[in-house]
Amino acid sequence: MKKTMYALPLLMLAFAVSCKKDVRETSAGNSETTGKAGFTNENNQFRFMKKFPLPDTGVQVKSSDPMARGTNCTVQTVTKTAGYDENILLNPNSDIIYIGSLIKSETINSGAYTPLLNVTRKPITMSVSLQGVQGSVAKTYLPSVSAQRTALNDILNQKITGDQPSEVSMEVNQVYSEDQMKLTIGTKFEYSKIASATANFDWSEASQKTHVVAKFLQVYYTADIDIPNDGKLIEDDPSKFGPYSPVYVSSCTYGRVGLFFLESSKSQKEVKAALTIAYKAAVTSGSIEVTTEVKNILNESTIKVYTNGGSGADAVKAIAGYEEFVNFIKQGGRYSINSRGALLSYKLRYLSDHSIARTVLTSTYNVRTCDETISQLYSFRNDQDGDHYIGFVPNMDSYWTYEGPAFKAHRMAVDGAYPVYCYSRRANGEHVFSMGGTPDGSGWISEGVAFYAYKTQVEGTVPIYEFYSASGTNHYYTPASTIGSYPGYWTERRGVAFYLFPNQ
C-alpha cells in the first residue's frame, strides 16, 4: 500500500496594511508638506515648534546563542524599531480618536495618548471617500466626538447609488513575544482589548509551537480633514503646550478588521502558506483548490480572532479551523446601509507643519530559528494485519490507526544524512524502512525515499531501534531500547536501524 506525501506550496503573502514609508521633512510653509496647492502655513503660530524626537527605525541582532544540546534550533536576541504612518485602532468607541482631535505628541509612543483639552478651535471641514452619494460628502463643524458622529451620520444617511468598492488585504507575520505582537499589529493604544486572545500562548524559548498573527483589513471608506491653506487650526498660544508640536487626527479609516492569532505545532512556513491559500480561496470564491493538508494545518491549530466592523460588537472569539476562517473572510463583503463598518485606523499629523506624525514602536524579543528540513514523523498501525507505518502526514486514510508522534527526520537530503527507503509487501501487510536496499524475501515493492537519517550518531540524534514480530510479520521503529507491552509478540530486537531526532 503506497502512501502519498503531499507537498505544501510555499506561497508568501505580501499585502502590507501599515505603511512604513519615510516622510519627507520640510520647513514651515513649504507646500511639499501636504502636497496641496496654495498651502502656505503662514498664519500657523505653531509652525516653528519642534517635533518630538523619535528613535531611528531598524533591526539589531544583539546575540546569537545555540539552544540546548539535542535540538536543531538557535536563538537570536533581536531589537526591532518600526515606524507607522497609519495606526490600527483596537477600540472603535474611543473618545480620543476623531477628526481634529489634539494629542500631546510625547505621549503617542508610550500608548498614553493624552488629549489636549480647553483649546480654542477653529471650524474644520471633513469629507468622506464614498462614491455615488446623492448630496454633499463634506461637513464643516467645530471638532469634537459628538460633532464628528453627527456629521458622519448626516453624510451616510443620504441616498447612495451603486456598489461601493472595498480594499481587502491580509498581512501574515510570525511573532515571538507579546511585546513584539504590539509592534506587528502596529499599536500600543488600547492593546488590552485583545490581550485575552493570546493569554494561553506558550512564549517560552523551549516551546515547539509556532505563533502567527494574520491582520485582515477590509476598507470601506475614509474620512479626512481639509488642511487650511494658512495652516491654522486653533487660536491658542503655542507656549501653553510645551516644547513640542502637538499632533492631531487627520484621517480615519472605516471598515472591517480581523486579527487572527494562531498557535500551531507546524513550521512558520507551513502555517503562513496555509493561511495564504485559505485567504485566497475565500476572496476568489473557491476557484483555488485547497488540499486536505492545508485544511488540517488550520484545523489542528489554536486560533482566536479579534473582530470588529461586522455584525455584532467587537469581540475576541475562537475560530474552529479552516471552514470558520474562510467564512469569516467571506462575510460582510461590502459597504451597505446595514454594514457601515467600524473605525479601523487613523493617521496623525503635526500641528506645526501638517506633515505625517509617525508612530515608532520598539520591541526586544528572542527569535527561535529551527532547521525546517527536520519535520515530525508520526506512527500508525493497522489492527487487522498488525502492520506499522511511519510518515510525515498526521492524518492517514481509514486503513490506519494513529498512534502519535514517533520521532523527527529530514524531509530532504542534507550533508551527512542518507535516504531511508520504504518497502511494502502487500501479501503480509508489511512495511520496512531501510538504508540497506531491498529486504530479504520476495514480493517487496519500493515506495521510494521516506526520509533521510544518519548511519552514525551525530549531535542531537538518538538511536532508532527496529523490532520485529515473526507471528505478525510486523516491523516497529522506536527510540525506546525495549518494548514493555506485548514482550512475547516482538520476537526480535534487530538493533539500531538509523539515528534521528527525538520528539523533545
Please state the average pLDDT score. 82
Number of structural domains: 2
Largest beta-sheet details: 10 strands, antiparallel
Secondary-structure element sequence? EEEEEEHEHEEHHEEHEEEEEEEEEEE
In whole angstroms, how far apart are the ends? 30 Å
Please state roughly what percent of the residues sit in beta strands, choosing from under 5%, 5-15%, 15-25%, 25-35%, 35-45% or over 45%: 25-35%
The coarse overall form would be elongated
**What structural class do the secondary elements suggest?**
mainly beta
- Count of distinct strands: 22
Poorly predicted ranges (pLDDT <50, ≥5 residues)?
A: 1-32
> Helix share of residues?
10-25%
Give the helix tally.
5
Estimated radius of gyration: 30 Å
Structural write-up:
Residues 398-480 form the DUF5648 domain. This is Thiol-activated cytolysin family protein. One of its GO terms (molecular function) is cholesterol binding. The structure is a single chain. With 504 residues, this protein is mainly beta. It has 2 domains: 31-370, no CATH class; 374-500, no CATH class. The protein is 11% helix and 35% strand. The chain has helices at 145-156, 178-185, 268-283, 292-299, 321-330; strands at 58-66, 73-84, 86-88, 102-103, 124-128, 138-141, 167-174, 210-225, 247-264, 302-308, 315-318, 342-350, 359-370, 374-381, 388-391, 401-410, 418-425, 430-434, 445-453, 462-469, 474-478, 492-500. The strands form 5 sheets. Strands 3, 4, 5, 6, 7, 8, 9, 10, 11 and 12 form a 10-stranded antiparallel β-sheet that branches. Strands 1-2-13 form a 3-stranded antiparallel β-sheet. A 3-stranded antiparallel β-sheet has the order 15-14-16, with no helix packed on it. A hairpin with a 4-residue loop joins strand 17 (418-425) and strand 18 (430-434). Helix 3 (268-283) packs across helix 4 (292-299) and helix 3 crosses helix 5 (321-330). Mean pLDDT is 82; it is low at 1-32.
